[in-house]
DNA sequence: CTGTAAATATAACTATGTTTAATTTGTGAC
DNA sequence: GTCACAAATTAAACATAGTTATATTTACAG
């Protein structure tokens, strides 16, 4: 049947992306197939290739949406914090939450390797940089006398570290498997790293009682 | 052609694993196929299923060997260091080296998700714990007054962090792409984290001039 | 009303993992 | 020695995958 006109090309695209996200969320990337997506939106497989160049492109699009959603989640997680230390902890916590709640979609962002080297690189890098810059903004406030480059490096190191914990936890490579101890791990890394940073930054503490809470969490946070 | 007797079951197994490793190393996991492995060792696909239950099992076996090889590499990287700080930096550097040199095999350890939940969990966890304990040993020397549990937490956090940097670097999600700046990132994370740890450990510095080198690297290591 | 191009489906092609059914061949019994 | 049986190996078959090519339907232009 030809041009039904029921859905525009953009609509089909959106429907396909949503269906794919749902499949991936439930069954992981290995559960994704072109025919499954097509039938989920009431079309046959050929129509998918009318909208996407190939499955790789669909996956890249899903990854892009995941990164957007992640960015929104992270910014929303920071509305309540006032001191950079607390904000960074909130960021870490929210990141862990997102990774835990959307394991498969989150993993796919980092694990999918397109077979035909195409467009994905630049798009993803920008969206990833945007995430890192959330961390940079906080670090800049915290370590005022550091240069832009130093802040960039610090944000890369710290955030990659949080990312690593999330991966280790989700792939079950850590000894402690419960959610709480993983959360404590993240707090532990962030706070110790910041303590290390402030060794050279004498006047890092500008916030009032929140910073106190932060420092109190440094050690005993994981002792239970 | 029946029992040729040219190779024992164990020999075929070893040959298949080596062939698979080579394919993965060159083309990545997506390039791996049962028929490709079989033909690489001069057999047909059916014979693979005489030795392995399925492809998942083969992959798990490869992953196990990768973890063993990684463990050996890391222990060898520590023969020249005397002070825990230097040893930890050597560990981080060696880990990054291995990940960079064997990208696909290294990624597969963390990225492959078996479709039929089978045996892999326990084996991998043990081998992973062994890696973490290399870090624990160093931290134990460095922070003598910390409890075993605290050391475990610290090692998990720090090593997951290094792992995260390696992943971010390899998946091209970091701004700085050259090998040197990634290496600096790792040094940066390790040294700042250790500085943070020693905030509560007054007498952490026991080594002589090596510790000096270590501290000197804290800041300017990434400034170039 | 008719033709044309777009939208969609159907079918085909190749490659994959896995299973089943041959087939070959070493080896022990007699 | 040769005969049978079991083990080792191949060949074939099946289901499903991504992708491409072809057919078919339908909206719209004239």
N-to-C series of helices and strands of chain A: HHHHHHHHHH
CATH superfamily of the largest domain in chain A: Tetracycline Repressor, domain 2
What is the terminal-to-terminal distance of chain A?
Answer: 63 Å
- Biggest chain-to-chain interface with counts: A-B, 55 and 55 residues
Overall pLDDT of chain A = 87
What amount of the residues of chain A lies in strands? under 5%
What's the alpha carbon Rg of chain A, rounded to whole Å? Answer: 21 Å
The number of distinct β-strands of chain A equals: 0
Q: What CATH architecture label of the largest domain in chain A applies?
A: Orthogonal Bundle
CATH class designation of the largest domain in chain A: Mainly Alpha
For this entry, what is the oligomeric state of its chains? homodimer
Largest sheet of chain A: none
Q: Provide a count of the helices of chain A.
A: 10
Unreliably modeled segments of chain A = 203-224
Helix proportion range of chain A: over 70%
* Overall outline of chain A: elongated
Model description:
- Two copies of one chain form a homodimer.
- Chain A has 224 residues and is mainly α.
- Chain A folds into two domains: 1-52, Arc Repressor Mutant, subunit A; 57-222, Tetracycline Repressor, domain 2 (Orthogonal Bundle).
- Chain A has helices at 9-27, 34-40, 45-51, 55-77, 84-101, 103-111, 120-142, 148-170, 179-198, 209-216.
- The first copy, chain A, is elongated.
- The termini of chain A are far apart.
- Chain A binds a DNA duplex (30 and 30 nucleotides) through residues 1-5, 9, 33-35, 43-47, 49-50, 54-55.
């Amino acid at each position: 049947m030809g041009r039904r006109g029921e859905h525009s090309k953009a609509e089909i695209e959106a429907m396909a992306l949503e269906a794919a996200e749902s499949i991936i969320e439930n069954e992981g990337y290995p559960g994704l197939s072109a025919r499954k997506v097509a039938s989920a939106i009431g079309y046959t497989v050929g129509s998918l290739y009318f909208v996407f160049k190939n499955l790789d492109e669909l996956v890249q699009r899903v990854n892009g949406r995941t990164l957007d959603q992640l960015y929104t989640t992270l910014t929303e997680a920071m509305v309540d914090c006032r001191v950079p230390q607390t904000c960074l902890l909130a960021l870490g916590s929210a990141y862990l939450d997102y990774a835990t709640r959307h394991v498969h979609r989150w993993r796919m962002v980092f694990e999918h390797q397109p077979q035909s080297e195409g467009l994905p690189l630049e798009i993803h890098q920008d969206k990833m940089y945007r995430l890192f810059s959330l961390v940079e903004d906080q670090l800049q406030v915290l370590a005022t006398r550091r240069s832009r480059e130093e802040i960039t490096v610090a944000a890369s190191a710290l955030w990659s570290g949080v990312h690593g914990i999330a991966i280790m936890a989700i792939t079950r490579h850590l000894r402690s498997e419960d959610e709480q101890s993983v959360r404590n791990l993240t707090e532990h890394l962030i706070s110790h790293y910041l303590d290390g940073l402030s060794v050279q930054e004498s006047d890092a503490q500008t916030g009032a009682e929140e910073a106190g809470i932060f420092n109190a969490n440094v050690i005993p946070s994981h002792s239970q």
